Amino acid sequence: MGSIIIVDDHPLIRLAIRTVLEPHEHNIVAEADNGADAVQLVRKRLPDLLILDLNIPNLDGFSVISHIKSAGLPIKTLVLTSSNSKNFALRCLQAGAAGFLCKNDNLNELANAVKAILSGYSYFPEDTISTLQQNTNAACQESVLIAQLTDREITVLKLLASGLNNQKIADALLISHKTVSTYKVRLLKRFNVSNLVALAELAKRNSVV
Description:
Elements: E1 3-7, H1 11-21, E2 27-32, H2 35-45, E3 49-52, H3 61-70, E4 76-81, H4 85-95, E5 99-102, H5 109-118, H6 126-147, H7 151-161, H8 166-173, H9 177-190, H10 196-205
Parallel strand pairs: 1-2, 1-3, 3-4, 4-5
């Protein structure tokens, strides 16, 4: 089936993973108990899949994923960790992992996750995918709204996000303080935010400043 490297600092966990996967004819080509060795083994053996814990010494799991990604290696990563999926699954997805499983879940699910990933699918908790879609939809909506702004509204947004107050913006644009205030109220309403801090974060998030 697939060639796999297991990275976990607990020998019993590595043995448990072997016990689950070897009956499915997967080939465990190497094991490591730390991140530095994991990166070297991945470069040397080029497995189909890396099963990786996050909490490992000498480079944590996220650093290992980053090294693999920056090296351009076509290796998929399944994170198997005791870290809470609510806090870490989305981060793993955004970092470039192909799947996430919590050790507290039934390890029998591991075989299904490996099969799915080696078949070209991702394997994450449903709420992780839902959260990503919500974030993506929100980002798309912000981009659309920004594209609809006039040149002057964009300029005022940039200056507000840069920390200038109404009077300084008025002086810079040669318009009245009242006009700047009108633009500010309009921008807050357009993006449905209640204060300038949120407006500035939105501007920076969308590379307006």
